[in-house]
Structure to design on (480 residues):
């Protein structure tokens, strides 16, 4: 199987007039289709780490993104931190020592391998493209080249959306696309006041609560915002760093 | 006019150029030059829109006067129309040009004789620029030729999407990242104010906007200070 080119990917996903959401959805779908037995997810990152999911294919693609959002660890975060691909052909073999909770959750969703590729423009780390698989084994040369093409295509898409917005004004499309993570950030602010910690620690408390109660980060965040769940200084004991 | 084997050769050459490390300026020149030869044009011009939406001629090939005309018609003429409508303008002769776009009269007479065809550079419904050719008056471009022209414009578009200058890519990426961070800090600030004052998120947002206005500072600046632990007293005021 020959590797896909960036031009080929862009020509395919740009057909017609897809809006920003549809465009990124197509990118993820096309990626999953091009690589047998896999799911794909694209997340945005800032200097503080992954901040939201742009698009993910139904099934293992979405499951992997959700797990990493809730736990705050995984190949996605590693790829963001290092600026290099994080390739785990056998997740339980190479990942259990690093992030046991993630490996357990991934296995439960049927994920056996994850390959995370930074989406970056030189020094600016825009996001991460995750490719997940239901079977153990590395990506072969052509598959690796294809995945890298998709990461490059993601750069082209994000940069294009930003340039396009520049001409039209309004909210940058990429920001609108992760609007559904707004509650997480609001909850982070609230918990930072309740537990008297900074926002990155507050996020950690939310993630720990999600993990220990077996819920998603978004669900816990919603409860914090509605007042159903609150933290206090004594709750700091969960992570006393 | 364009022989199938010549067209095929050009497309292969351009496809190869797209796979390697891409210098966008070189690529656009290559494409413009090849487009002109393929369609038998006296001159060819490729224009792109800048951030403000004005068209700039990025590459030209062929005879000087016709090329100058192609540059003019980006301001008012087929090239401009193609950019604003996204629809190709095909086979317009000098008389028609003078009629539709009187401002072009001078440049048109210098470049005469000839026919103008312009096609849009577009992707996902957005028009990025236009590719225009001036062919000798006795030449009529077939539907196949126009399709070839559009296909060349499509290749130019794909090249552009992949390889803006590094400066431009970096600048846009930084813009995107800043916009994202700004949005996040505002959401966090809503939470901080809500928890501090015991009010709902919507009220917290109202107070943030109001205080920013009163203080004459951008909302994101106030939000960053709030998240940093510097709570403006005015935010505690419910009025």
């Amino acid at each position: 199987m020959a590797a896909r080119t960036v031009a080929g990917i862009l020509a395919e996903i740009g057909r017609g007039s897809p809006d920003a959401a549809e465009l990124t959805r197509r990118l993820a779908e096309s990626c999953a289709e091009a690589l047998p037995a896999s799911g794909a997810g694209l997340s945005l990152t800032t200097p503080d780490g992954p901040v939201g999911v742009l698009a993910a294919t139904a099934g293992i693609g979405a499951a992997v993104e959700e797990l990493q959002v809730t736990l705050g660890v995984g190949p996605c975060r590693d790829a963001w931190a290092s600026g290099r691909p994080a390739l785990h052909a056998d997740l339980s073999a190479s990942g259990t020592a690093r992030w046991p909770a993630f490996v357990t959750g991934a296995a439960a969703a049927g994920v056996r391998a994850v390959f995370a590729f930074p989406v970056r423009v030189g020094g600016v780390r825009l996001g991460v493209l995750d490719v997940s698989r239901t079977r153990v084994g590395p990506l072969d040369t052509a598959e690796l080249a294809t995945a890298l093409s998709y990461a490059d295509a993601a750069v082209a898409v994000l940069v294009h959306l930003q340039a396009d917005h520049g001409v039209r004004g309004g909210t940058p499309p990429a920001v609108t696309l992760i609007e559904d993570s707004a509650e997480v950030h609001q909850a982070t602010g609230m918990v930072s006041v309740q537990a008297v910690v900074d926002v990155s620690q507050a996020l950690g408390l939310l993630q720990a609560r999600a993990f220990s109660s077996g819920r998603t980060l978004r669900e816990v965040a919603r409860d914090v915002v509605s007042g159903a769940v609150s933290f206090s200084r004594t709750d700091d004991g969960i992570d006393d760093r | 006019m364009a022989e199938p084997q010549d067209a095929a050769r050009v497309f292969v050459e351009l496809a190869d150029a797209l796979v390697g490390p891409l210098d966008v300026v070189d690529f656009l020149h290559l494409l413009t030059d090849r487009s002109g030869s393929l369609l038998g044009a006296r001159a060819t011009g490729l224009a792109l829109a800048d951030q403000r939406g004005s068209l700039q001629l990025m590459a030209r090939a062929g005879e000087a006067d016709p090329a100058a005309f192609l540059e003019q018609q980006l301001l008012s003429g087929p090239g401009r129309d193609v950019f604003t409508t996204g629809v190709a303008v095909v086979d317009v002769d000098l008389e028609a040009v003078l009629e539709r776009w009187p401002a072009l009269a001078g440049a048109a007479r210098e470049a005469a004789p000839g026919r103008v065809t312009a096609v849009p550079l577009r992707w996902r419904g957005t028009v990025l620029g236009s590719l225009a050719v001036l062919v000798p008056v006795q030449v009529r471009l077939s539907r196949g030729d126009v399709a070839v022209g559009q296909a060349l414009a499509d290749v130019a578009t794909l090249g552009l999407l992949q390889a803006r200058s590094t400066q431009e890519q970096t600048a846009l990426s930084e813009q995107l990242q800043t916009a994202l961070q700004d949005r996040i800090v505002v959401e966090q600030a809503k939470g901080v104010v809500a928890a501090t004052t015991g009010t709902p998120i919507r009220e917290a947002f109202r107070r943030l906007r109001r205080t920013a206005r009163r203080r004459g500072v951008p909302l994101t600046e106030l939000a960053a200070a709030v998240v940093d632990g510097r709570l403006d007293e005015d935010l505690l005021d419910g009025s």
Summary: Chain A is about 55% helix and 15% strand.
